[in-house]
Amino acid sequence: MGVRRNRVAKSLGSQERRQNANDCSDEWYGNQNSSCQTPTNSIPVTLPAEASNALDKDILVKAWCRAARCEQQEKFLNKLRTLGLATDDVEAFVKSQKNARKSKSKSKSKSGQSQSLSQEDKATIQVCMDNKANDAKKTSGESRRERDKLRRKLEKSLGSKTSRLKKQLENLKKEATKVRKQMEKKHSKKIIHLVNKRKTQYSLQGCPDKIKKFSNLKVFRNIPIEPYPDEEAIVIGDIELSDDERQALKWQPKYCLFEKLEDVEHQVEIQKAHAKTRINMMNDETRRSKIEQREGIVATDSKEEKERQEVDDADSRRVFNREKMSFDYGNAKITDNKRNVDMEDEAVMEARTGTWEKLMTVYKEEFCDSQGRQQQNGSEAQLRGVKSLIQRQKNHEIIVLQTDKSGKLVVMEMELYEKAGNKHTTKDKIITWEELKAIEKRVNGHVAMLIKIFNIGCNWDHSDRTRGTCLNHSAEVAKLILLYKDHKNWDPSQGGVPPTRPVCQANRGCNVHLSDIVSNILDPLASAMEGTFETDSTEDLLSRPDRLNKKQKEKRSKQERRQETHRDKHEGEKRKGEGEEKSMGDMCNCKPAQLQDGDGVQGDSQERGDTECQEEEIVILGADCVTCYPNLKKLETAKVAKEVALESKVEFRNIDYKTAGRYLALEMSLSEIWMNGLQKLVPIRRQRKGTFPTIHGKRAMEKNGENEKDDEGWRYPNYDKMNSGDKRKILASVIQLAVKTCFETHCYSWGGKIYHQQDGGPIGLKVTTSCCRITLNQWDKKLVLALEKCGLTYEEGSRYVDDIRIWMRAIKPGWRWSHVEEKMCFSHVWRLEDEISGLSKDQLTAREVGRIMNTLSKQVEITTETKDDFLSRRLPTLDTELWMEDGMCLYKFWEKDMVSKKTVDDNTAMGENSKLATLSQEVVRRLRNTWRGLEQQEKDDIMEDFCRKLKTSAYRDEKIGRIMRAGIKGYQKLERKADRGERSLHRPSSEGRVARARRKVIGVDNWFKPNGDEDSDSSSTGEETLSWHGDWKMRKEKKVERKRNKNKIKRLASNHGSRNVTAENELETVSVLFVPVTPGGELARRFREEEKYLAKLSGYKVKIIEKNGQQVKSRLCLADPWQEEKCGDSSCYPCKAGSTKLCGVRNIVYQHTCEECKKVYTGESSRSAKERGAEHESDYRKGLEKSHQFKHQETDHQGETPPKFSFKVIKVCRTAFERQISEACYIRETGSKTINSKGEYNRCHIPRLVIEKKETEDKVEGGEGETSEGLDLNTEGVWQGAGKKRSAKGNVEAENKRRKIEVIEIEKGATEGEEKVNKSREVPVNSLEPRRVEKRIASEAFEELETSYKEVRPEFDIDNELEDQDVCPVTERAKKKKEEK
Questions:
Q1: Distance CA 1061, CA 1348 (A)
Q2: Do 1164 and 1149 form a contact (C-beta atoms < 8 A)?
Q3: What is the DSSP pairing of strand 880-885 with strand 888-893?
């Protein structure tokens, strides 16, 4: 076989060599009509008269282009060999040879089988591809030798070191580069085609052996899957929609569209990745020891000590420690500090920056228009429909909103939308801007006092920064949004208004920070409460039925063992002939009344008679709270919070009781103080004359320790000698007052008006959820006590928010709960009524338990439900349905009928791996929410339904097969872990709670790092990866490639011992780079390919992740359709200066532009544009030197009329980390037109390396040396280029080899939340002073960097890369100076 395989490969190789030779000769030397001939718009190659005789310019261009083409062909074939692919001609040749052999041997086989390839044929293809790649390598070598030969002739004719030669070579390189790019584009498309073709072959192989339980699925039997019919758009009201608009409404709200590619945002992501790299490098032991040794620091920590320190660090940053039951608000840390890293690592980061910038530029040139817009992933009709819907909303004709639970888009008439919203605002009060500012002033007083009471961030010295972030002066208002309740099946013929759910923006409003502070106190109190039914997920909910089923199995086995004991004893008595008439109870000397509770022996209920109100049969009761959040009352909820705080075992630390006492004295009246028993615990004023101080007064707003003389006007108790009970009473009263304030100060906007909420829980605030938790947890405890008092027992209980499920033994007919006696009573009349009514056991039990539930709290109104209320005879609960069968609780995946028949669309702008992970995890979720013992047919029905959803979402059958296989294998792995006892299939919330709490703290910085110890439910833990390139053949080839390169990597490591060059699979991931999502993930693929070489060079990896595109709902669904261009506040400076709709948003980057000269000031602030703009206006009017407007007027417009400035918010950031890096990037992008001062550059400066190259040319006529350009970074953080004349000294070759790397002002700015007040400018700034590190790396280090990368990637030229990629860009000012000189 091997001889035949080699013979076939040789014949194919000889044919290929002849074909390549003919193609090359025709294409480059004779055939002018070839597709790859010299472009007509190419740069002309001009030769002098003396050289034109020896060389023809067409010959030179063709030689250079031929060499580039052959090199790309060699790379293409090597890439195919790496992926295990083959070209179409090779596969066709092998198949034709196979068919010829079969016809020759007269084999009778089916036509379908003749097209399939055996392992032998695949091996033959691999040999053919090897020979083809070797031929391409030889051809490439010949073309390079020919090019070098012509180059030597050209040097001989023009001179070896002349400017004319250099110019001609540059032009030839540009021509070769054009051909290279064309070939790369062509080959990339070819590779994608071959990969998709091969995926189809492997995905249609049927069901693997490991998941044969699901072999009946259509996708595994190659039966076409029928999609669901298209759903009609939901239209509420008399609205006429065009076909384009209806097509646009078929999109789901979370459907993502491709975004515009912007260079500045790409720079921000690059610098964020480098910042994370620096942090992780300093945490790395080897790099840290190297730098500490350089700085003279000695630190030796063992591995165990290091791990212990990580755990201690995580615990020190946890506000609530569940294990120790302690609450310390001083552990609230805003950010971590950064330190400097080694210069060699900075050089590698600079090379990465240049490479990433070039990759983005090249992609934009190939696939985007001049403005960076990509080709959209929607039809032209849908895009036209989106534009039409947006325009009609601007005209106030319609409104586009989302549904409440089904995930769809709805179009509603504007009048109906206003009526539906007015229904929710009838009880609230309309207020003015002045009243809103008064409320905001009061909220700021409470926030300032709570920060001092709980000493928030004091352990990290972050109290002042927390204070500056939480105090709000922008009078921002949350927007009220409506969600349509399509599950209510509303019909316009019924009249009234459509049913909607009001929702407010949770991150906006004057009391958002107060809500966050209070909720962070209430959540630990709710979590520490014992004896509740609270669950936090479906997984935690299903752990209760699993636990019940385990009890039932143990109970049944116990009964079986008892019956066997009775049977054995009875047979023994028979054999002895003694007492055949005796009962079994007498023989075993055991009466049913003496059995333990729960043993369930027959006749037990008869012994108990009417004294036992419950049967042995277990039923499931469902209960729901009616309008849970709106029913929360201010005084009752605050009282519950106080009671929970008094009874809780949580230990509060770092509490300033003196400030807490004054807080109560300022806000509580004398009657309230006496009613709460605080008369001896709060301070009293020494003099009653004068105005009583308020919560928003000067003393309340001051920091701790300021103006302590004012305390002399108060008589304070001795808090140091106060017992713990009195301290807990003070603290509980503080929490009660804070909760009450949250309910009293919530405002929102609707219909262009500002409303002050008067009743119910604050809409959209986090504190409402926390108050609901403690209220319902206390209600759970009351319910348990009430059931015990009535003699009712329950087996299990669960409550997710307001959905309650209780497993208990059914109540017998005739038993009812008496409200007067508060116990269960029996009556024969009631028994007769229950039998006549025809109510089931579930309904009888729900009726009586519901009566008990509705007497426990005035705030909680309960409605009950059972399985008899549904056609399926099963009780829906979250995304499952529950029912009892033979004493066991069974469950199955369930979703509502109105849920969308689509899932994540195949064409949505998401990364392929993200879509695969999401969809395969959905398969895992559906199987995990189904009982393991359920019939396989029901499981198949669940999977078939999901397959139809995937088909409706435009997925091909082969993709559906891969998703199903990955998800099923992931679920089976969870089952195997559960069988081995490694974890529960449905984990309760108590399992792994400590590890989750620690990961929540430290996982923010390390989430992208692979961690094998971490237990993950992702289907990627299965035996099949989620990448499209993850089939067995590709994985095998990748292993072979890594093994082939292992010796080369070791050799590099030995030759360059100073560099950390290791194998790719052994490299550590230290950072993550987010790149925009592109069609087919082409941009991310290019970044990942380049990262392989960069990782080998740097010794560490950077993970490349695609960002999702813009969601459709962000374009169509308006938060406030009545919002005007200006906010309505007459004192708002941004609105007066031209800013629109973003004046109240916090955490921003903005630009202040001079309208006359168009110079720009770029700034950032954690506060809003309204607050920061007012400060700029005030400083300018006062003529302060720190005002950039005043400076600009004095320097650029002296003696002229004051210029006008426009204000614009250019970006809204999520974190301070992103905000400060964005400011630095936008300043750099502005260039010479910036008016930022030097100090503002340095506080958010990005570390950069300056590469200054000194080259010397031969003296030209006139005896003067040519001017070289040295690049440098000035002190203002802007790249400047300065032309410097110098004469030639020394040898030219030696001068050309000299390179100098210089680091200018490497500063560690842009840390998340690190802000302090700058003396020269009262704005948040970096807490670390700029640190100058003037280190130089010798030319050998730079040459070593270049040599290492060239060995890893031979075609790389670091000089050209740094020049072409604009590592050190020259500003416009430098260009103008150069032109003038």
A1: 9
A2: yes
A3: antiparallel
- Element holding 479 (H helix, E strand): strand 478-484
Q: How far apart are alpha carbons 184 and 190 in whole angstroms? A: 10
What is the torsional sign of CA 858, 859, 863, 866? negative
Query: Are 624 and 802 a contacting pair, CB within 8 Å?
Result: yes
Element spanning 1101, H or E: strand 1100-1107
141: tokens are 């070598």
Instruction: Say if CB 1116 and CB 448 are below 8 A apart.
Output: no
Whether the Cβ atoms of residue 168 and residue 154 lie closer than 8 Å to each other:
yes
513 exposed, middle or buried (CB, 10 Å; 0-12, 13-18, 19+)? buried
Residues of the chain predicted below pLDDT 50: 1-54, 104, 106-115, 202-205, 286, 290-291, 294-295, 297-300, 336-341, 579-609, 1012-1036, 1038, 1046-1062, 1242, 1251-1342, 1352, 1354-1378, 1381
One-letter identity of residue 347? A
Question: Can you state the angle between helices 634-647 and 724-744, rounded to 10 degrees?
Answer: 150
Q: Write the DSSP symbol of residue 712.
A: G
Cβ atoms of 864 and 846 within 8 Å: the answer is yes
* Residue corresponding to tokens 């791990």: 307
Of 456, 472, 453, 476, whose CA–CA distance to 464 is shortest?
A: 456
- Which sign, positive or negative, has the C-alpha torsion 600, 606, 607, 609? positive
By C-alpha distance, which of 621, 614, 619, 620 is closest to 597? 614
- Cα atoms in the 13 Å half-sphere on the side-chain side of 690: 7
- Give the DSSP H or E segment for 69: helix 57-83
Q: What are the backbone dihedrals phi and psi of residue 1241, each rounded to the nearest 5 degrees, phi first? A: -65, -45
One DSSP character per residue, 1221-1269 reads HHHHHHHHHHGGGB---HHHHHHTPPP-EEEEE---PPP-TTS-PPPEE
Q: What's the pLDDT score for residue 1136?
A: 80
pLDDT tens-digit readout, 1192-1215: 888 888 877 788 888 888 888 888
3-state class (DSSP) for residue 1037: helix
Please say whether the beta carbons of 1083 and 1051 come within 8 A.
no
Predicted pLDDT at 1197: 86
Cα 858 to chain center, whole Å?
A: 40
With 0-12 / 13-18 / 19 or more C-beta atoms within 10 angstroms meaning exposed / middle / buried, residue 388 is middle
What gap in Å lies between CA 54 and CA 57, rounded to an integer? 10
N residues, the chain? 1381
Cα→Cα distances 453→227, 238, 447, 702, 1172, Å: 60, 57, 10, 13, 28
Q: Outline where DSSP puts E strands in 486-613.
A: 500-504
Question: Cα separations (Å) of 1279 from 1162, 1231, 1282?
Answer: 17, 8, 10
- What pLDDT sits at residue 697? 78
Provide the CA 508 distance to its chain's centre, in angstroms: 21
Q: Can you spell out the DSSP letters for 1263-1287?
A: S-PPPEEEEEE-TTS-EEEEEE---
Q: Which residues have CB under 8 Å from 1026's CB, separation 6+? A: 913, 916, 917, 920, 966, 1019, 1020
Residue 106: count of CB within 10 angstroms of its CB = 6
**Which tokens is 34 given?**
């070839």
| Phi, psi for 1160 (deg, rounded to 5) | -125, 135
